[in-house]
Amino acid sequence: MANELKKSTKMLADHLTNAYKERQGVTPLTELEPELSIQQAYEVQLLMIQREVEAGKQIVGKKIGLTSLAMQKLLGVDQPDYGHLLDDMMIENGGQIDKKKVLQPKVEAEIVFVLKNELKGPNVTATDVLLATNYVVPALEIVDSRISDWKIQLQDTIADNASSGLYVLGGRPRSIDQLDLGQIGMVFFKNGELVNTGVGAAALGHPANCVAWLANKLSEYGITLNAGEVILSGALSAAVNAEPGDYFQAKFAHLGEVSVRFDK
Amino acid sequence: MSSQKFKEIAKLLLDAEIEKKEVLRITADKIPELTVDEAYLIQKELINLKIQQGLSVVGPKMGLTSRAKMKQMNVEEPIYGYIFDNMVVQEGSSLSLSELIHPKVEAEIAFVLDKDLAGPAISGVQVLAATKYVLPALEIIDSRYENFQFTLPDVIADNTSSARVVFGNQLRRPEELELDLVGTTLSINGEIRALGAGGAVLGHPAHSVAMLANMLHREGSKLKAGQIILTGGITEAILLENGDEVVAKFDQLGQVSIKITD
Fold first, then answer.
1. CB B162 within 8 A of CB B140
2. A196 - beta bridge partners?
3. Which residues does chain A have within 8 Å of residue B252's beta carbon, measured at their own beta carbons?
4. Which residues form the Fumarylacetoacetase-like C-terminal domain (chain B) (predicted)?
5. Contact predicate B43/B81, CB 8 Å
6. Distance between CA A149 and CA A62 in Å, rounded?
7. What is the tens place of the pLDDT at every residue in B80-128?
8. Which of A27, A258, B126, B151 has the most crowded CB, counting CB atoms within 10 A?
């Protein structure tokens, strides 16, 4: 039984790898394997990441997804998910995104945490997160799906590294004292036009709640959140579709601005 | 259209407000071709009736200030109406549903000017220079029309659904804040139901006041020092229910709350 599970985990990871190779979305894993559990979906993700690391990439951080009530309702779930950030996902602030790096990208604005002390679950609280935080910065996350047309269920996105794509850090590092992260406002522009606004509380009521959830979830796999890791804590507003040539910019209260452009 | 007809419609809308009885929208039967300009004439009659009853204007308010609402109503420009002294509810107190028809609440930033401001060509910067204070507010809108259904002229005639307002007690100088980046949450019974940042209001709440000054100029009017001006919802409007504890929190501006009773 355990072997069989392992086999289908490998098969599903290979299936996702094809999306990267062919540069085209693939059939949802939940169609190939209707019984796919959340547990196994994370095993697929971890196997994919392990292969990347063996190929020479480095894990530089984590991202938390499905942190808004709207997204959780859309997928019919009551908890977030997480994925891994690899070194080749970083785009410099104001930088350009090569078309070849994305399949069907969407952009969202988030608050990033960088820790000064490690966080090890279970029982990590938002207060623990704040006390362990070195600084926060504003970020854009380019989410992407290796599943065609984003036809994802929770298990699909989990296996697919929580639909991670690329990320851009901007603004200036701020220590968290004197900031009420839950009330930090954000305005989001696409090609110069304001497309939505958000606030820190959009991410599970407070961005630190997301990081606490992550630390506790990771403890199930014996993983610790390390000092210096980049932690994308969750979107402050709805993800916006990106087309070639689009320019995105987010302005955050107290934290500054971050922007990125997609190649034509 | 005769001014007598406008007066009759204004009286009908005022009666609907006083008796808390919804009416069919004007454009459904009474004046299907009602224009925006005519709608403002009806609103003016309604305002005059209120003043004749001894009420006084607290300040003007802007409506349809979000891109989403403007698209939904297919308009290029927001709309305005007036808040009266009998619409002001004390911060932290309670409001009975029996006073209203089908009220909804939204979170806003209000401005108080220390100089009169007359259009044309007023910009957001000039608004900030003329502003004494900004403060947080809850606006309770309550269309007098059946099922909150109306066209643009209908809602203008109905004083842009103005019903109640709750002002926060914390006054701030505008230069201390980046008003477009003020994060705002609207919670009911502890659950966040709507959220946004100040930029949701025409890109910046001061743009809303500027646009209002310019719109008022077209009818030979202006913004006056001391008026409290509502700039438009940062969040979408949420239908109120009996027992709701409503709290709007604003980054650096504090919070405003009210309890809803039956």
1. no
2. A188
3. 183
4. 73-258
5. yes
6. 24
7. 999 999 999 999 999 999 999 999 999 999 999 999 999 999 999 999 9
8. A258
Between the alpha carbon of residue B76 and those of residues A75, B202, B203, B254, the distances in Å are 35, 11, 14, 32
Q: Decide if B178 touches A, using CB distance below 8 A.
A: yes
Note whether A48 and A147 are within 8 A (CB): no
Number of H helices, E strands in chain A: 7, 13
Task: Say yes or no for a CB contact (<8 Å) between A199 and B250.
Answer: no
Write down the ipTM of this complex.
0.83
CB contact under 8 A, A197 and B196: yes
Q: What is the CATH number of domain A2-262?
A: 3.90.850.10
- Could you say which of 3.90.850.10, 3.40.50.300, 3.30.420.10, 3.60.20.10 is the CATH number of the domain covering B3-261? 3.90.850.10
Verify whether the Cβ–Cβ distance A182 to B185 is below 8 Å: yes
CA distance B234 to B230: 11
A3 contacts: CB under 8 Å, gap ≥ 6: none
| Element (DSSP H or E) covering residue B260 | strand B254-261
Does B199 reach chain A within 8 Å, measured CB to CB? Answer: yes
CB contact under 8 A, B181 and A69: no
Domain coordinates in residue numbering, chain B: 3-261
Decide: A89 and A124 in contact? Cβ < 8 Å: no
Residue with tokens 């077209």: B218
From the CA of B30, how many Å to the nearest CA of chain A?
38
Q: Write the pLDDT tens digit of every residue in B52-88.
A: 999 999 999 999 998 878 888 888 889 999 999 999 9
**Contact criterion met (CB < 8 Å) for B197 and A253:** yes
Using alpha carbons only, how large is chain A's radius of gyration in Å?
17
Dump pLDDT digits (tens) for B204-240.
Answer: 999 999 999 999 999 999 999 999 999 999 999 999 9
pLDDT score at A1: 44
A-B contacts (CB, under 8 Å): 75
B254: contact with A, CB 8 A cutoff: no
CB contact under 8 A, A182 and B178: no
Q: How far is CA A47 from the centre of its chain?
A: 18
> Do B249 and A183 make contact, defined as CB atoms within 8 angstroms?
yes
